[in-house]
Amino acid sequence: IKGLALKARDGKLTIPEMEGGTFTITNGGVFGSMMSTPIINPPQSAILGMHNVVERPMAVNGQVVIRPMMYVALSYDHRIIDGRESVGFLVKVKEMLENPSRILFGGKLPEEILLGL
Questions:
Q1: Best label site of 43, 96, 99, 116, fewest CB within 10 Å?
Q2: Which residues are catalytic?
Q3: pLDDT tens profile 12-63
Q4: Phi-psi category of 57—alpha, beta or left, where left has phi over 0 and alpha has psi -120 to 50?
């Protein structure tokens, strides 16, 4: 993956090197996209769209506070992937983005590791 990423950044990635994938992550956020529905390109089975992070008002413990928010959108081929698993995956992505330390600790919070939970 690292080699393909370097080729893409250098503008040297070829069409054959991009074929045959099953899952794509698209980042419209770099262009200011707030929300969209990504389209699956065959033969892929799903695509995750990441969007722009903006400060938005939200309710926290009965108070309106400003927090950074980002919309994510998952499009998937329901003939291949069941909705339950897709939503479960999206929830995991959300949890990882909200608590990046979970990525380092196998999905757990640091305090869960320390307490042996």
A1: 116
A2: 78, 82
A3: 988 888 777 789 999 888 888 888 899 998 888 999 999 999 999 999 999 9
A4: beta
